[in-house]
UniProtKB/TrEMBL annotation:
Protein name per Swiss-Prot or TrEMBL: Exonuclease
Keywords noted in UniProt: Exonuclease, Hydrolase, Nuclease
InterPro entries per UniProt: RNaseH-like_sf, RNaseH_sf
Gene3D superfamilies tied to this protein: Ribonuclease H-like superfamily/Ribonuclease H
Single GO MF descriptor: nucleic acid binding
Top-level lineage group: Bacteria
Length: 172
């Protein structure tokens, strides 16, 4: 299995009505050198300025981003290249990140190479610690910048720490 850590930035709370502005992905392995970065043109006229501001991009900038269909096709090709077998989607907030990635894959390509399920990094850590109040974010080495590749990489580092230092049994 190939774990792909994903982080999404958007201009609103749900796909369809709002747009995924950018996303980053990292193949989780000991090098963390296989990354993907997509910037997507908005698919809706609607946006929430405060949500968009998190991404660090203006609305005008996003209007010059790439066609979502092409970005999702490029992401699928990248997944096929870096995943020797079944790709596993994992993220810090899979309820949010998965919602956008899954919707965009199905809407623009008619399929999702990740299938129908995702993993949540925070829940995994809470299980290791046997404490639903624990947070893994101190395990990141890469600063959380809201650039989605940085954030995905930091989360991948946390997953590697769980494996190497906390005894998590996981095949990467």
């Amino acid at each position: 299995m190939a774990y792909i850590m994903v982080d999404v930035e958007s201009d609103g709370p749900i796909p369809g009505d709002y747009s995924m502005i950018s996303f980053g992905a990292v193949r989780v392995d000991n090098t963390l050198n296989k990354t993907f970065y997509g910037k997507l043109k908005p698919i809706s006229e609607k946006f929430i300025p405060e949500a968009l501001a998190v991404s660090g991009h203006s609305r005008e900038e996003t209007l010059s981003f790439n066609d979502p269909r092409k970005v999702m096709a490029d992401f699928k090709a990248w997944i096929n290249k870096v995943a020797e077998d079944r790709p596993i989607f994992i993220s810090d907030n899979n309820g949010f990140d998965w919602m956008f990635i899954c919707w965009y894959f199905h809407h623009f390509l008619g399929e999702n190479p990740f299938g129908f399920s995702s993993q949540n990094l925070g829940s995994l850590y809470k299980g290791i610690e046997l404490d639903t109040f624990k947070n893994f974010k101190h395990l990141r080495r890469t600063r959380h910048t809201h650039h989605p590749v940085d954030d995905a990489k930091g989360n991948a580092e946390a997953l590697l720490t769980m494996k190497e230092e906390m005894g998590l049994k996981i095949k990467l």
